[in-house]
Structure formats: structure tokens, C-alpha cells
């Protein structure tokens, strides 16, 4: 199963649904019209003609009007409705047939002199169906004649009689917007492209048209009907409709404003062409929305099965695909958690297999990049170490020279030499911190875990800073226990931490200031290494910031403050690496007290014992 | 007699400097710039070896390793690489101390002295600082030949300081280890005792106050 099946089946489902929808849209209307036409012709053939011609005045009355063709008749059936009903009933498609229909019979020439005319007029005035449509809405201009293929019929033979009838036209005010009403309408027959566009109703001199079009028809309207009665609404419709029917258009439909009931009329010519029942007009209405809805939604029996089949296909297709995606996701996650060391092993020729191999390629690319980066970092560290090494030697020489100068009395400005010495010591501290900081960045692996003699650490750091303390005229003293105190960790880091704190205490002190380094042990086998001074100390807000991971003093600060921050920050980080407590506080002498506290790893007897 | 120090350092500038200030400090210097494997005859009268770890052609630790096969002369290792594994390896191979460059000349001198200092502590015997002599066994204090009458606590304080002459001892330690914690365990009490002691020692008082720490018996500067 391939993922594209998902897409294909979904598309196919849409296509099937649309095709069936279109099919129903196109054929439904035609089918229902044909059915009605067929039903009416059958009805008339099977005795309807006799009944109609025997009593044309009553026959046209509503023959049937059912909401549901399989249900009961809503109104008392006319005597001849049985055949129609049964005919319509036979077809399941009847569900889409008009709910209410009216049948009118017309004689062959469709003349208003037809004996049925008064009754028709009455019927129209009463309204029909459920009363939502009145005859006044019958606007012939909106009438559309359709041929078998649903195309508009050419209005080939519209009666010229329409001309003079315009002034008296009663329903002119109901012309819908956009209907043609220009003066030119009077000038003659419409062009072929204007279906159902006769200029006027066939009122007084209407006979001319029908007489010409309907073969064998009497054609002469009664004069009294022309003048003594109001014009018959709808007659013109019937007239033109009949004409159209003769020209091969079996039905005419009229649509009113969108969203309202859609009025449909069918004029069905009977096989016989004479007598009062030569043309039967079926008129019904249907809701426009319902029409659209029906036309676009084919019955579930038609589309349901294919769609169900396709859903199953999709499910069958999607199942394994989903499982593979879940598996791939798990593999990618696992690989991501162990720094992409776990390979992605999902195989396959499908798209998911390709995705997996793309992930795998990305993974190896990441590994390559990481390896390259680690290589670069290693090179950088090596470079840094070499540079530190290379700088350390000349700096030692420089310190030697400075020390020599400081020792010569009188020849040099002692202040200058002293300042130079402090700067040299500062350089040395920076180099130490640079090298330490690069190692701290790499984390624990480079940190040694050896027992370290803290007494020695204190001594080294104090001895290292004695020259600079002397130059700064700061007293530097220390106290250590008699027996060496051991702590576990990295001696270079420990020394650097203590060096930073001591140098900081000396640099940021006043002339004749004091610095004391004290190593003590407590009863619970912990050591306390503290450095205190009586310098100006550090403001509280800065104290809390020293412990920030990447704390560097702001750029606006000078070198002096910057070093204080960096040195103490590195001391803090080193304490963290050793899981020691590191605290800054105000000493009781006004300056800063820095404390390291941690577990004692052991104590050895003094080597001299 | 000046003690002889052998320096193996390849950097000429630094080497000559070290030679210069150690000579000034009273040591007899021998300097080699090339690393060669040590032979016993070179170390006949050498009191201390100052060994640079990075030498052309030979790794300083190899020299140390060879040296330790025939001599236990103290070795001070110099390293420009501030690298713990180097130091740990050097200490494990028998180096006595190490120094990381850059350093101050005074620093080196002090460390050399610390290495060469002979332990001179005799348990229970008399301890002498200047004119002051105390006998821990007999619990007696003398200035020259004149006995000084001190109380039991004063003696304990003085003995504790004298035992570690030259080193500062914290008040806390003295309070916790010398004073009777039941009766007089406070730093104020300690200060009172020390004050009495100083008066009794008079002109030969050797007890000095160390800022931030406590007290120390002053030793005459060895240099």
C-alpha cells in the first residue's frame, strides 16, 4: 500500500460524488418532465380524453395534488386522477415529481374562446397549489421554453398579434427587473436568440398568431371575449407554449425571482389535434432551494456504496502507512535524544522509506557537522593552550624584570613599577582564567578527580600573591590547620579559584589594607576556605550577579570591575563543578568575604611527623 | 654553605633570570638548557632540581622518572601548561612541588626555601624562638635563662603558637582546642589571656596579632 493511494481514493470519491451529482442534476428534470408528460398522455388516452371532452368545464379542476406520491391524496381526487396517480406511483422517481400540479385542457387552437377559459381564469385567480403562487406572477417574459436537450427553444413563431395588446396588458407592472421593455419591442418578431420573448399578450387581435401556428384550429376568437372580458391571464403563455411545442419543445418553464418558488409549466400536446382537450397544460411549482439541493445530492444508494468502498480502501491503505509513520517518528526521536548516534533503520521503497532514508542522511550529516565542530573546538583549545604556554614564559621573564626593578631603590619610580607589576599579575590572572574558562566550557570530562591537599593550595596561592600584595602595600596572611586537609577535585581549578579570589581581594583593596586566607575544618568533616578583606567590598546587587552563569560585567564598566566579575564568576563556576558551596558576603571588617565549603576527602598526617 | 640547585630550563631569558635571582638569594646555581638523561654523578651535591617539563628533545617527566631510579633529591617542576594531568603525573612520579608559569621571582625563591627547609620539630622537647624557650614536657617558659611564670591556659596558648611558630593560628582554633569550652570558651577570653601573656613576655614578646585570623609567634626572617 502506498501513501498516494490515500490521495487517489480521496480524489476518486470526490469525482464519483460530483459525477453522480451532475448526472442527477442534468437528468432529473428531464426525467420528471418526461414522466409527467407520459403520465398525462396515458391518462388522456385511457379515458381522460372522453371525460375531458364530455365535461371540459369541470374536468380541468385539480386532478391531483399530493405531497408524497406514495402517500394519500391530499384533496378529493377528481374522477380521472386514478390513472395518473397510479402511473406516477409506479415510479420511485416520483419522489421528485412536483408536489402540487394543476392540469388544464385547451382546445387545439388555444384560443381564449376556448370554453374552458372562464374556468381557467377562475382557477388562476384563486391561485393554485398551496396558494403561494398567484396568477399575477405569471410573467410571460420570464418564460423559458426548452427543447429535449434542455436548450432554450427559438421563438420561431411568436404571434405578431402581441403588438397591439401592450397597452392593455394587466400584469405589466410585474415585469421583473432586467426584463426587456424597450420601445423596440413593438417592431416585430424577436430574433431567434430570444426565447419566449413575444412582445405582447395575445389579447384583442391575438387570433392572428395562433391561427397561423396551429393547424386545423378554428383560429377565430369571439369578439366579445376581446372586449367584454378582462384579458385571460396566462393565455399568452399557453399560446406561445403551444407554438413552441409544435416546434419540438415539449415543455415550457417559468422561473421567478431567485429563492422563491419555481413555477414550472408543461404544455403537452395530445396525440389528437382537435377538440377542446387537444393540449394539456400541467402547471406546478417547486421550491428553488430544494431543487438545487436535490439536483446536487444524488441518493445515498447511488453514491454511498462507492464512497464506502473507497473509505475501506483508504482505511486499509492508511493502516500500515500510519504504523510506519509512528515507527519512523519513534526512531527519529530516539536518535535525537542520544545526539543522533542511533541510526534510523526503517527501510522501504515507498515514500516513508524515502523519508526514513532522508532522515538517515540528515542524521549522518549532523554527525559529520558535530564531528567537524568538535574537531574545530579541539583545535581551538589546543591553540589556546599553546598560546597560554607561549605567553606564560615571556610573562614570567617580564615579572622577573619588574621584580628586579622594584628591588632597586631610588633609581625608579616605585609607584610606576608597582603599577606595572599589578598589571603583569593581572595579565597572568587573565591567561589563567582564559585557559580555565575554555576548559570549563567543555564540562566535566576534562576535570580531574584527585585528592588535593588544600593546605598546599592555600600556600601556593598565598605565596604567589605575596609579591603583588607587598607592592600594593596590602598585608596578606593565611592560616591553615596543622594537618593537611584533602578535598577531591582538580587542583588546577581549585588553585585558579582561590587565586582569583585572593587577587581580587588584593586589587580591590586600599593601601594598608588586609587580606586573610583561612582554611578550617568543621566537626562534620567539611572544610571552610574563606578569603576576607577590608576593602570597599562589592555592592549587594553585584554579589548576586556574580553567580550568573555567563556573568560578565557590563561593557560600560572598566577593566578593573570586569576582572573582578570574571575572576569571581570563574571561582563560582569552579565551586559548582566541585559541588562546593560558594558564598559572597560582607566581612565583619567591612570588605568582602568569599567562602568555599565542601566535604573533606580525608586528612593525612603531616609529612614531617 | 650554599646549597646547590640544578636548573634545567631551555628558555635562555627565563633561565638566566632564575639563575640570577636564586644566586642573589644565596644558592649555588647550575643551569642546563638541554634535556639529557640524568646520571648519578650530576647529582652528587645537588640539593634541589628545578625541572622544566617542556624541553627540546626530551619530556621533563622522563628525566624525573630516570632520576627517581637513583636519587630522591627534591624536585620542583616548572610548567607553562596550567594542566592538572601534568601536575598530577609529575607528583605521582616523585616530584615534590610544581610551579606554573608565569610566576614571580619571590614566589620561586620562597618555594625553593620551603622545599629545602629541614623539619626541626622535636616532639615534647624545648622549642626556641629568639630568646624565648618553652619546654612542653616540663611545662616551663624561659626568656634566656629567666623563668617566666605563666598560668596553665597561658602556657597552652603559647605552646600552641610556638609549635607552629611563623604560622598564623585562628582564634577559633585556639578557643576550641586550648581553652576549656565549659568555662571560658570565647574569643574575648582568649584575647585577655594573650594580653596577659604579652605583658609577662615584656620586651621579648613574640606574639603578634594577625588581621582577620588570630595570633602568630613571630619568627626572625630567615633570609
CATH architecture of the largest domain in chain B: 3-Layer(aba) Sandwich
Greatest chain-chain contact:
A-B, 56 and 41 residues
Shape of chain A: rod-shaped
Q: For this structure, what is the CATH homologous superfamily of the largest domain in chain B?
A: Response regulator
Shape of chain B: elongated
Question: What structural category characterises the helix and strand content of chain A?
Answer: alpha+beta
Q: Which strand-content bin applies to the residues of chain B?
A: 25-35%
Q: Number of folding domains of chain B?
A: 2
Tally of separate helices of chain B: 8
- Our estimate of the beta-strand percent of chain A is 5-15%
- The structural class of chain B is alpha/beta
Low-confidence segments of chain B, ≥5 residues, pLDDT <50? none
Task: Provide the succession of SSEs of chain B.
Answer: EHEEEEHEHEHEEEEHEHHHEE
The main sheet of chain A comes to: 5 strands, antiparallel
Contiguous low-pLDDT stretches of chain A (5 residues minimum) are: 58-99, 123-150, 153-259, 553-562, 605-609
Q: What distance lies between the first and last C-alpha atoms of chain B, to the nearest angstrom?
A: 14 Å
Compact description:
Chain A has 609 residues and is α+β, with helices and mostly antiparallel strands. Chain A is built from 15 helices and 13 strands.
Describe this protein's structure.
The complex is a heterodimer of chains A (609) and B (223). By secondary structure, chain A is of the alpha+beta class. Chain A folds into two domains: 3-298, no CATH class; 447-609, Histidine kinase-like ATPase, C-terminal domain (Heat Shock Protein 90), CATH 3.30.565. Chain A has helices at 3-54, 56-59, 81-90, 117-126, 208-213, 223-228, 235-246, 288-296, 300-337, 351-407, 414-442, 454-471, 491-507, 540-546, 559-577; strands spanning 100-106, 143-146, 251-254, 261-269, 279-287, 450-453, 475-479, 485-489, 514-521, 526-533, 581-586, 592-599, 602-603. In chain A, strands 1-5-4-3-2 form a five-stranded antiparallel beta sheet. In chain A, a hairpin with a 4-residue loop joins strand 9 (514-521) and strand 10 (526-533). In chain A, helix 11 packs antiparallel against helix 13 and helix 13 (491-507) runs antiparallel to helix 15 (559-577). The longest helix of chain A has 57 residues, at 351-407. Chain A starts with a helix and ends in a 6-residue tail after the last strand. The model of chain A is unreliable at 58-99, 123-150, 153-259, 553-562 and 605-609 (pLDDT under 50). Chain B is of the alpha/beta class and 223 residues long. Chain B folds into two domains: 4-116, Response regulator (Rossmann fold), CATH 3.40.50.2300; 126-217, Arc Repressor Mutant, subunit A (Orthogonal Bundle), CATH 1.10.10.10. Helices cover 36% and strands 25% of the residues of chain B. Chain B contains eight helices and 14 strands. Chain B is elongated and about 65 Å long.
Amino acid at each position: 500500500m502506498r501513501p498516494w493511494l490515500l490521495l487517489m481514493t480521496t480524489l476518486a470519491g470526490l469525482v464519483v460524488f460530483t459525477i453522480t451529482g451532475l448526472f442527477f442534476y442534468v437528468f432529473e428534470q428531464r426525467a420528471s418532465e418526461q414522466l409527467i408528460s407520459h403520465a398525462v398522455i396515458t391518462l388522456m388516452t385511457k379515458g381522460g380524453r372522453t371525460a375531458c371532452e364530455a365535461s371540459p368545464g369541470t374536468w380541468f379542476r385539480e386532478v391531483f395534488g399530493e405531497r408524497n406520491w406514495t402517500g394519500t391524496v391530499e384533496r378529493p381526487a377528481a374522477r380521472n386522477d386514478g390513472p395518473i396517480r397510479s402511473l406516477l406511483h409506479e415510479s420511485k422517481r416520483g419522489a421528485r415529481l412536483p408536489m402540487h400540479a394543476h392540469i388544464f385542457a385547451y382546445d387545439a387552437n388555444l384560443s381564449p374562446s376556448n370554453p374552458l377559459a372562464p374556468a381557467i381564469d377562475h382557477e388562476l385567480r384563486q391561485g393554485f397549489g398551496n396558494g403561494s403562487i398567484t396568477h399575477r406572477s405569471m410573467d410571460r417574459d420570464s418564460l423559458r421554453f426548452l427543447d429535449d436537450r434542455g436548450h432554450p427553444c427559438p421563438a420561431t413563431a411568436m404571434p405578431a398579434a402581441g403588438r397591439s395588446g401592450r397597452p392593455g396588458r394587466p400584469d405589466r407592472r410585474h415585469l421583473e427587473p432586467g426584463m426587456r421593455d424597450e420601445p423596440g419591442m413593438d417592431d416585430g418578431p424577436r430574433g431567434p436568440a430570444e426565447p419566449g420573448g413575444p412582445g405582447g399578450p395575445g389579447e384583442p387581435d391575438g387570433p392572428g398568431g395562433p391561427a397561423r401556428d396551429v393547424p386545423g384550429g378554428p383560429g377565430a376568437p369571439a369578439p366579445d371575449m376581446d372586449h367584454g372580458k378582462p384579458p385571460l391571464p396566462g393565455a399568452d403563455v399557453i399560446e406561445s407554449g403551444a407554438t413552441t411545442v409544435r416546434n419540438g419543445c415539449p415543455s415550457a418553464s417559468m422561473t421567478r425571482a431567485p429563492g422563491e418558488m419555481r413555477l414550472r409549466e408543461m404544455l403537452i400536446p395530445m396525440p389528437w389535434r382537435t377538440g377542446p382537450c387537444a393540449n394539456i397544460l400541467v402547471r406546478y411549482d417547486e421550491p428553488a432551494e430544494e431543487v438545487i439541493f436535490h439536483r446536487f445530492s444524488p441518493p445515498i444508494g447511488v453514491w454511498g456504496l462507492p464512497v464506502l468502498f473507497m473509505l475501506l480502501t483508504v482505511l486499509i491503505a492508511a493502516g500500515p502507512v500510519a504504523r510506519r509513520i509512528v515507527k519512523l517518528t519513534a526512531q527519529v526521536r530516539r536518535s535525537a535524544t542520544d545526539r543522533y548516534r542511533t541510526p534510523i533503520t526503517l527501510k522501504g521503497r515507498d515514500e516513508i522509506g524515502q523519508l526514513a532514508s532522508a532522515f538517515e542522511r540528515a542524521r549522518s550529516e549532523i554527525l559529520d557537522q558535530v564531528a567537524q565542530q568538535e574537531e574545530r573546538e579541539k583545535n581551538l583549545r589546543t591553540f589556546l593552550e599553546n598560546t597560554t604556554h607561549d605567553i606564560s614564559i615571556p610573562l614570567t621573564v617580564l615579572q622577573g624584570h619588574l621584580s628586579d626593578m622594584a628591588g632597586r631603590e631610588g633609581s625608579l619610580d616605585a609607584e610606576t613599577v608597582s603599577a606595572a607589576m599589578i598589571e603583569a599579575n593581572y595579565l597572568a590572572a587573565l591567561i589563567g582564567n582564559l585557559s580555565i574558562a575554555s576548559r570549563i566550557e567543555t564540562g566535566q570530562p576534562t576535570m580531574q578527580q584527585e585528592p588535593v591537599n588544600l593546605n598546599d593550595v592555600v600556600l601556593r596561592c598565598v605565596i604567589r600573591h605575596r609579591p603583588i600584595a607587598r607592592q600594593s602595600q596590602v598585608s596578606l596572611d593565611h592560616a591553615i590547620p596543622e594537618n593537611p586537609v584533602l578535598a577531591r577535585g582538580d587542583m588546577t581549578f581549585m588553585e585558579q579559584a582561590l587565586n582569583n579570589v585572593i587577587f581580587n581581594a588584593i586589587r580591590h583593596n586600599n593601601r594598608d589594607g588586609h587580606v586573610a586566607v583561612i582554611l578550617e575544618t568543621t566537626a562534620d568533616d567539611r572544610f571552610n576556605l574563606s578569603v576576607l578583606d577590608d576593602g570597599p567590598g562589592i555592592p549587594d546587587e553585584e554579589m548576586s550577579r556574580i553567580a550568573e552563569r555567563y556573568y560578565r560585567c557590563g561593557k560600560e564598566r572598566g577593566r578593573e570591575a570586569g576582572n573582578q566579575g570574571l575572576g569571581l564568576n570563574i571561582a563560582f563556576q569552579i565551586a559548582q563543578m566541585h559541588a562546593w558551596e560558594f558564598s559572597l558576603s560582607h566581612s565583619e571588617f567591612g570588605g568582602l568575604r568569599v567562602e568555599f565549603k565542601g566535604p573533606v576527602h580525608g586528612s593525612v598526617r603531616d609529612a614531617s611527623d | 654553605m650554599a646549597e646547590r640547585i640544578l636548573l634545567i630550563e631551555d628558555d635562555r631569558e627565563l633561565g638566566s633570570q632564575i639563575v640570577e635571582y636564586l644566586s642573589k638569594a644565596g644558592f649555588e646555581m647550575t643551569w642546563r638548557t638541554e634535556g639529557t638523561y640524568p646520571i648519578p654523578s650530576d647529582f652528587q651535591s645537588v640539593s634541589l632540581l628545578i625541572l622544566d617539563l617542556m624541553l627540546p628533545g626530551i619530556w621533563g617527566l622522563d628525566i624525573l622518572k630516570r632520576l627517581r631510579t637513583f636519587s630522591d633529591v627534591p624536585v620542583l617542576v616548572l610548567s607553562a601548561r596550567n594542566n592538572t594531568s601534568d601536575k598530577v603525573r609529575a607528583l605521582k612520579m616523585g616530584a615534590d612541588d610544581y610551579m606554573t608559569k608565569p610566576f614571580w621571582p619571590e614566589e620561586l625563591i620562597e618555594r625553593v626555601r620551603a622545599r629545602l627547609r629541614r623539619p626541626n620539630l622535636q616532639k615534647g622537647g624545648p622549642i626556641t624562638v629568639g630568646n624565648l624557650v618553652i619546654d612542653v614536657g616540663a611545662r616551663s617558659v624561659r626568656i634566656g635563662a629567666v623563668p617566666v611564670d605563666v598560668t596553665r591556659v597561658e602556657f597552652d596558648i603559647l605552646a600552641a603558637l610556638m609549635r607552629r611558630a611563623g604560622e598564623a593560628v585562628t582564634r577559633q582554633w585556639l578557643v576550641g582546642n586550648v581553652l576549656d569550652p565549659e568555662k571560658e570558651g570565647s574569643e574575648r577570653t582568649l584575647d585577655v589571656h594573650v594580653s596577659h601573656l604579652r605583658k609577662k613576655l615584656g620586651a621579648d614578646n613574640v606574639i603578634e596579632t594577625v588581621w582577620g585570623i588570630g595570633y602568630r609567634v613571630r619568627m626572625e626572617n630567615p633570609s
